[in-house]
Amino acid sequence: MRTVSFLAGRLAGLAATLLVMSFIVYGALYVAPGSPISVITGGRPLPPQTIAAINAEYGFDKPFLLRYLQWLGNALHGDFGQSIVFRQNVSTLIASRVGTTAFLVVYAAALIIVFGVVLGMASALRKGQADTAILATTTVGIATPSFVAAIVMISVFTLGLHWFPAIGAGTGFTDRLWHLTMPAVALALAGTAYVARLTRSATNEELDREHVDTARGRGIPEPLVIRRHVLRNAMIPITTVGGLTVAGLIAGSVVVENAFALNGLGSYLVTSVEQKDFPVVQAIALLLVAAFVVVNTIVDALYGLIDPRVRVAGGAR
Amino acid sequence: MSSLPAAATPRRFGVAGTSRLGPLGVICAVVIAVLAAVAVFAPYLAPHDPNALDLLHTFAGPSPEHLLGTDDTGRDLLSRLIAGSRTSLLGPLLVVLLSVALAVPLAIASAWRRGPVDATVSRFLDVLFAFPGVLLAILAIAMFGAGLPAAIVALGLAHLPYIARVTRAAALRERELPYVDALRVHGFSSFEICWRHLLPNLAPLIVAQATVSFGYVMVDLAAISFLGLGVQPPSADWGVMVASGEPAILGGHPQQSLYAGILIVITVCAFTILGERLADPDRAPAG
Fold first, then answer.
1. What are the residues whose beta carbons fall under 8 Å from the beta carbon of B214, sequence distance 6 or more?
2. pTM of this prediction?
3. I need a labelling partner for B135 at 20 to 30 A (CA). Which of A64, A265, B63, B173 fits?
4. Which chain A residues touch B254 with a CB distance below 8 Å?
5. What are the distances in angstroms from CA B95 to CA A43, A251, B123, B208, B214?
């Protein structure tokens, strides 16, 4: 019962946050200086009838709240209106690019989860030189922006060693994997370093706890102590922060796609901002923010399911 | 005042504090001081005009004339890196100052009043927290056009919750200390207690968090400029330099992008390490 009400609460919170986000995304561009008509007409003087016709076609003559609700209603059906620049359905334009971005983000997320956790545990359990080396590497890793990692990798692996292509997303699964390896590594670098740091401190903290000493005192073999008593408890903070880091990749993909000239959502967002193609900007911004918020909520709910204390405390509030 | 119970000893900065930072922390502080000095005195330090073209000497290697060589239009790379330190450091500084100026009063007020004020502020912070900083900045740029001002305001808002959360949590602990009650009994107003006593005691923590934030903001702002939405070429800025050097990489001239990128990494490293040391000198990882 408690679990159900806990999940219901999180779902309601998700719906409320998404509503606020959609309002910000739509409202922000509504108050932007310069009328959208001047973008459509390219600043040419037009007869009033034509302007009135454009107003009616795009619905600029209706009050703001009505337009927002209409936009939101259509967006829920997958209709984001027409691109001002390409005169095509925004959803069609976006649909062909979702795949690249999704592939990139999932690839980077897998890298973060695997390498972040493994490096962090190695650092905490090995101690000594391995620990120092991993600490130094992760400190630099956290401070390295994805686009700097991108240009370093292009210099080394494309220019120097000819291992990976510098641009394009590839076709077919293996070709795509090969093309998107450098972008995914660039995107995952800071997150991997961050998760490794966190795994290290969570594992170290758990190693110092009394229940670990007790388990050792009872003569339980060390590998079992590590697996059952240390790692299991350490997984709680790792899941939360790891999940949030993965959610952050969605926004980070915008930068990486530009660095590697990939035709994903992020690079299209930047192009559309430059072209003032507002329907596209609204659609992509809403999609990315929604994906970010949904992943966050899933992580939040998972955290509650893994650690019953959160659920109970949350229910009592 | 001496009869009042002592608050938790505030951490002091200055010469006595440097020993608590450890050798690495001191190195980071020195790096930051040098970078700040370079930014302030950039026009006097740059050996050449950072925007002077020399189409006869494009992609020149290092020489006594051009210590780091030249870019695709023959501009002196060292001079451009020095000139670029200004926007690259000033941008994050403004973002952090804006965040702190907004977040600290909000956090202290909400911790002090608690109840509905606190609940409202917390909801507001949650919503801001749920909006990725770079996306907020891109949206702001879509509204107001490319350039630093829109990005600075947007990132200032996006980083507000990080500083506000840390400050609020610390203020909640601080207001329970006996000295606050003692001040109240002495008849001091809420504002006076918060401004004269609570804030100074929270200041070291706020400075530490702001230092860490500076590093992350620098990454975000450089990314915005890299995307072509922030500082506009031909202005020298490290993020812009990474981007404008990219096409030349495959031609075998990665210098411009690499140098600017390395400077960004060094600066961000210095700020994050120093921030961690300031926040918790005892528990920060050794190294």
1. B92, B93, B96, B271, B275
2. 0.82
3. A64
4. 151, 154-155, 159
5. 34, 19, 22, 15, 8
